[in-house]
Specification:
alpha/beta, two-stranded antiparallel ribbon, six-stranded mixed β-sheet
Length: 258
């Protein structure tokens, strides 16, 4: 072995180790309010991150998607809703209580009757029932349980945290709040949904050592009950029609704006 060759090999090894350490040191974070069985784009955001923080101590959004979503009923789009007590934007998500009437049985029956002919019904319906019959007191607890249950079902590796349980920064708002969470988590990459573009500044994030990126969901069509595909329904719909391997492949169908 010549000295020149030896030097090249040493440099190559050092470069490889350095690159591996750099990749290992990268920590990607995503933050979002909790939603009940949200659409697939929410899970793609989770899949893109090492850690996902449920922003559960911000204001509840009336007529938003925190306690609502869409499924197919008799082949038509149907919006289901989990009733809450005195819905108010002046109350935080984790303080908004579920109205305990007979909604659970009715909603479970609606989902069951609508998807009983779906190929993955036997696998997925028990998951849906467990979530909707859980002992959750607040809409935050129920929504988080729905998301975490889906991730467990798919064996996703992303770790979770709740903003209300950590960070002690709920006095901050918007970009400052997100940056505070990034700094406390030692995250150097933050991935956000496209809707955050007008709200966040890459320059401000960069000044704090955080690379701000935005995710864009790519459509993944699959066979539903009719020939006409309906996009962006609740994850319930995706799971009912697709096995785990196929669903996981859908979670890879996104682009990150770098």
């Amino acid at each position: 072995m010549t000295p020149a060759t030896s030097n090249v090999e040493v440099l190559s090894k050092l470069y490889t180790v350095s690159t591996r350490q750099l990749v290992k040191s990268l920590m990607t974070l995503a933050v979002m309010q909790p939603y009940v069985f949200p659409y697939i784009g929410y899970f793609q955001l989770i899949h893109s991150a090492d850690k996902f923080v449920f922003l559960d101590d911000v204001s509840f959004i009336k007529q938003g998607w925190i306690n609502r979503n869409r499924i197919l009923v008799h082949g038509q789009v149907h919006t289901f809703s989990v009733p809450v007590v005195d819905a108010s934007s002046h109350r935080k998500i984790n303080q908004t209580k579920i109205l305990h009437t007979n909604w659970q049985n009715k909603l479970i029956q609606t989902v069951s009757q609508s998807y009983k002919r779906a190929p993955q019904y036997q696998e997925v319906m028990p998951l849906v029932e467990r979530v909707f019959t859980s002992r959750a007191v607040t809409i935050s607890e129920l929504a988080i349980e729905s998301v975490e249950s889906v991730c467990q079902y798919l064996s996703m590796s992303t770790s979770f945290a709740r903003s209300s349980a950590l960070y002690c920064d709920d006095h901050l708002r918007g970009q400052e709040r997100i940056l505070s969470i990034c700094i406390q988590e030692a995250a150097n990459v933050y991935v956000n949904a496209p809707g955050g573009r007008p709200l966040y500044s890459r320059e401000v994030f960069s000044e704090k050592g955080v690379d701000l990126r935005f995710i864009r969901t790519l459509t993944s069509e699959y066979r539903q009950f009719s020939e006409s595909f309906v996009n962006n329904l609740s994850m319930i719909d995706v799971l009912m029609f697709n096995d785990k391997v196929t669903t996981l492949s859908f979670l890879e169908r996104f682009e990150i704006d770098v």
